[in-house]
Amino acid sequence: MSLLHEQLIETVDFIQKQSNAKPTVAIILGSGLGNFTDEIVVETRIAYNQIPHFPTSTVEGHSGQLIFGQLDGQSVLVMAGRFHYYEGYSPQQVTYPIRVMKLLGIKQLILSNAAGSVNPTFKVGDLMIINDHISFFTPNPLLGPNENELGPRFPDMSEPYNKELISKAINIAKQHNIEVKQGVYVGVTGPTFETRAEYKLIKAVGGDVVGMSTVQECIVAVHAGMTVFAASVVTDLGIRDEENTITHEEVLQAAKEAEPKLTLLIKELVKTL
Ligand code: HPA
């Protein structure tokens, strides 16, 4: 057995000693979206720094806890806070929790994030359902020896974001009068926000939004055979006329304002799973 696999088993054993819940749905909360946990009837909280082999989250707006609980009566696993490549973690460390989820029996993974828009029809506060991504600006987390027990060497990526979940989410949004966009998320390393020229490049290669998370997690989840749904909150406009700058505070504030819409969407989506 590989070292990674041994570590995963130790992590999973530790978690299963803290909770005997068996959720099949997991949700990862992005920047400024941590209040989603208010919707959860919490059964068990485990701080990341208690969990063997887990990295620790260092970014403002991320609380760093694994939460087992009930969302409208359904068992869920929530990651409040995630690991980012820009924090200095390897892509394998960033995605370690996804592999832990797989071994815990998670089948459906819901990802959320804050992102900058390069689509001129989007505005700050919009929700965008991710229907595809571009991963080429960040290292692929599957580089290196393949863990055959976890998934295939050359995974198909024709549908990283499950079409059925996307259409369910669109219907939910319609029913609740929530405006949603759809589009392509371009993953970048950060931690710098993009230059004006870089935002233009991201638009030119087919992106609608750009962000510093999600893509590596999605790849590892798809590799492991999980079904993925992801949504972005547009927190800033990369392509714009004014000479304004982008700050992390502005991103967190915009995410917070859009949070109720995203919370409703995810809550209703989980009900259908
Ligand atoms: N670029 C990259 N990541 C981001 C942005 C952005 O404009 N906004 C929120 N996360």
At CATH level 2, the architecture is 3-Layer(aba) Sandwich
Task: Provide the CATH top-level class.
Answer: Alpha Beta
Shape designation? globular
N to C succession of SSEs: HEEEEHHEEHEHEHEH
Please name the fourth-level CATH homologous superfamily: Nucleoside phosphorylase domain
Helix content: 25-40%
Number of domains: 1
Low-confidence segments, given as residue ranges, are: none
Largest sheet: 5 strands, mixed, barrel
Query: What distance separates the N and C termini?
Result: 33 Å
> Order of strands side by side in the largest beta sheet?
5-8-7-6-9
Q: What is the residue-averaged pLDDT?
A: 92
Number of helices: 7
Radius of gyration: 18 Å
Class based on secondary structure composition and strand pairing: alpha/beta
Tally of DSSP β-strands: 9
What fraction strand? 15-25%
In the CATH hierarchy, the third-tier topology is known as Rossmann fold
Bound molecules: hypoxanthine
Q: Briefly, what is this?
A:
The protein has seven helices and nine strands; from the N terminus they run H-E-E-E-E-H-H-E-E-H-E-H-E-H-E-H. It is of the alpha/beta class and 273 residues long.
What does this structure look like?
The chain is globular and about 55 Å long. The model has no long low-confidence stretch (mean pLDDT 92). The two termini are 33 Å apart. With 273 residues, the chain is an alpha/beta fold. Helices cover 31% and strands 24% of the residues. α4 crosses α7. It has helices spanning 3-18, 91-94, 96-104, 163-175, 196-204, 215-223, 248-271; strands spanning 25-29, 41-47, 65-71, 74-80, 108-117, 127-134, 180-187, 209-211, 227-237. It has a 5-stranded mixed β-barrel with strand order 5-8-7-6-9, surrounded by 4 helices. It is built from 7 helices and 9 strands. It has a single domain, classed as Nucleoside phosphorylase domain (Rossmann fold, 3-Layer(aba) Sandwich). The structure holds hypoxanthine (HPA). Hypoxanthine binds next to β5, β8 and β9.
